[in-house]
Records
---
Amino acid sequence: MLYVNFSWESLKLPLDRREDLSGTTTHGAKLTVPTTVGRDSGIEIGLAGATEPPHMTVTIVGAQLGDEGKGALVDRWGEEADTVVRYQGGDNAGHTVVEDGEEYKLSLVPSGCVRGKTGVLGNGCVVNPRTLFDEIESLREQGLDPDVRVAKRAHVIMPYHRVFDQMEEADKEDTDMKVGTTGRGIGPTYEDKAGRRGVRVGDLLDTDVLRSRLEYTVPQKRAIAEDVFGIDTGVEFDVDELVAEYANYGQRLRENDMLVEAGDFLHEQHESGGNLLFEGAQGTSIDIDHGNYPNVTSSNPTAGGAAVGSGVGPGVVGSGEIVGIVKAYLSRVGEGPLPTEMEADEAELADEIREKGGEFGTVTGRPRRIGWLDVPMLRHAARRSSFTGLAVNHVDVLAGLEELKLCHSYELDGETRTTMPATTEEWARCEPNFREFETWSEQDWSAVAAEGYDALPAACRDYLEYLEGELDAPVYAVGVGPDRDQTVERQTPWE
Ligand code: GDP
Ligand code: IMO
Ligand code: MG
């Protein structure tokens, strides 16, 4: 049943068309209403038989610090998508898809490519053509044929960006400014984008434009690297070499029909009834605006980024579903506070969870730090992205624990806080208030996934339902293992 709050003005119907509403109506059909309902009555009219239209966009957003299992859900829900769109980040992401035991690691190629869907790298992404072509090649070796389109407006990660990333991290080594980046040149590329000195994918098609961009930028970069940071620069700062290599990537992108005006491409897909799935990378707490700055990445994983970073309007993104992906505990790769981190007397437990959950960075192989679930962090995420639903992963990893708890609020300077404070220094001083939960035992998780939500242990359902209540969003899916089939699905966001 679709209910409509109407006013006569919004209907703009001539009086003689306001007939009795007795027939059927479908979404998008002109409404006619009984003339007996008065002007400005505020009466809610129920349209019998009318149904919600199918959601044509689903946006997947990491609710925590990245690595929540976004790739697994994009793959799962990618079945009903026509196009899967990355809207931010670059090859710093590491998304895992497991199909019948076969594991695919995706960094830049959208995860929907495992199912043969078209993948788009939107204007909000930063694209390293070297690693993109390598990744496509290695996916081909695994038997896939990725159809990847790249926005001409996306910025290009150049070799000197990687040098800058690593050089600056080395310089910050002994300071609390160190981020622990993936070293992929992400931050320096976004810096150049904002500084209006970047190279865009579209620039690779015109050697003169490419050369003139590089002739302006590269000497500055070289001077900073040599004179400020005192490093010896190499081929990464050689304009002729860069022009030759990158113009060649431009040609390959064109010859392979991979270049798109992404906003228009996606608009047409959407207008013609195609389902768009937006694949967020990273997570809310490492968002450049809403994360714990400066220990963040340099883009916006939050749902607003899906509109800005794809060229699809916020009305379209917002009219669909926005699903927050939650790991049932916390993991963090890289520097920064983690108030619920398992340390000291809980270090053994952290090791156990790390081993069981395979908590080692997909991109860098670094061991991930482990913490208890942080609900203030999740409230922050749900509000920043308007989550309409949740997927909670890794509940299998928590099975068999002796104790289980989550942080429901923080104590900060004598005050109880239910959301994350804005400064990272304050967040670091937050003391978690924990709430204990019943534990659950090991299960045959594949059987549980096949049977459905009610087959989950009752204690596990209590934990999930607590989250639903706190975040005011239903749990659509529960991850009980890495494989595509190891997801308990209550409903798909396309329904
Ligand atoms: P992403 O970056 O959010 O896509 O997540 P990653 O792929 O970096 O990390 C998630 C890891 O957990 C991967 O190895 C997944 O295969 C795995 N995974 C995803 N969901 C589950 C789950 O519910 N249970 C378990 N045990 N592993 C999962
Ligand atoms: P997915 O998409 C987890 C972290 C890095 C570092 C910070 C900045 O797999 O969830 P960057 O290289 O982006 O400048 O590093 O962000 N980071 C991630 N952590 N998952 C990711 O992606 C991440 N991408 C970047 O470890 O702390
Ligand atoms: Mg990852």
---
Amino acid sequence: MSIQFDVRTRVREDLRDLVPYDTHPYPNVIRMDLNENPYPFPEAVCQEIIKKLNSDVFTRYPDPGAVELRQALADYNGVAPDNLIAGNGSDELIQLIYLTFGGNDRTVLIPVPTFSMFKIHARITGTGVEEMRTGEDFAVPVQKLVERARAGIDIVVLVSPNNPTGTVIPPEDIMYVLENTSALVIVDEAYFEFKRETIVSHLNRYPNLIVLRTFSKAFGLAGMRVGYLISNESVIKELNKIKQPFNVNSFSQLAARTALKYRQLFDEQIGMIIEEREKLFMELQGLSGVTAFPSQSNFILFRTPVNSDKVYQELLKGGILIRNLGKVPGLEDCLRVTIGKKEENAIFLEKLGVILRDNK
Ligand code: PMP
């Protein structure tokens, strides 16, 4: 006799309508969809990583405390190793924060539009979500945010520079939130290296602050999955109780700390990305009917006079993959393009120009 097992009814009721993250399995396209670093990983860094590889990297469990990586990160950020936790991408750390401080009857307040995983991980961890729409220019209404946060919000999310808008939250606004609510405030600085404005230097003043960073963007290590968070020791202590012990694998720890050692090589790439971004921004603005939003990051959000589904599909047919955000409230007919290499940006722009002309 076989047992009755209807998996759909066994899944947690609050998670039944989740959809898996779309991995865009398109071969042979120029990828301008995930805000990665488009340049090759520097040869010198690659060689040093290979030189340091040994049998233990493969056979032994990784260092659960990522001691060497955290020391390198402490030097990079002017904090102590005890202010740091490394994660399997900052995605893992978002979930870790919710697992530790969310769940039960806790609620997170998220200004939107922003990085979707803040909401998805909240749902997965059973954390309530309240969204607050930002204004026309995507500025976070901090006064309104604080008023709401004071009335029963446990966690506040601030992403600066924000994804997908590229908008920066002024440091004084971030401090206003930190000073006027007892909620835990996550400041996601995934794109820090493209703006170099950080709240980390004020860490000592704010017991409720957690800063998130990643190696996936400026450091070109998206494939290694390394992120980190910076906070006060007391917060770190609590998070470490919940963290998976061997969360960052040995190879990734080695890659990340070697990348940090050679960070001036990435500075060159970051400079080129910023230069290309400014050029592409002007060019997008020059296309009839297009509105490009100023960005302090490695991508640009823009609105087209043509339906964004159409633009997305036509670009894909032409071998270019970008991000269609047309279904996000407030971002109707908007798309996000990651800054590519000079020649990739030129191809993108040319194809976009043709699509807009043909669909007038
Ligand atoms: N935060 C923001 C704002 C992001 O845009 C991203 C990546 N798109 C992440 C976090 C996640 O980065 P990671 O690769 O470190 O998980």
---
Amino acid sequence: TNRTFTMIKPDAVKNGHIGAILEKITAAGFKIVAMKYTQLSLRDAQEFYGVHRERPFFGELVEFMTSGTIVAAILEKENAVEDFRALIGATNPADAAEGTIRKMFATSIGENAVHGSDSDENAAIEGSFHFAGREIY
Ligand code: GTP
Ligand code: MG
């Protein structure tokens, strides 16, 4: 069993999809081992998305991710990273498979409802960015 990190992004929170998204996540067999309702500061978002600093959409991404509250969570399941990325679907909801979270709840490539870590290493880094050890159960 292992872990991934997710955020329900500001668009999905604003559109009232927190409950439906958590339902999809738990129905797919993920166990929530840490969770909080929070908002990223400018500095948080710039650091969290540091790998995208040189990308043309970086400014938009940071502006969007700081625009409202999010839900951050650590999820546990066998093969967590890969299975969670399959559950959320392609970055652009237009390309996302039927039944995936982004297909159902995302509005655009930028405002795409959820984040999912892309490797075990990044899952650990991102999880500890948001949660102290005593907040993980
Ligand atoms: P995350 O799970 O959020 O990391 O998405 P991803 O791994 O599917 O995509 P990637 O890491 O390449 O990009 C990170 C985030 O940047 C995406 O989820 C989008 O929110 C945003 N993003 C990516 N490409 C674009 C783009 O062309 N325009 C805009 N505005 N945002 C983008
Ligand atoms: Mg990514």
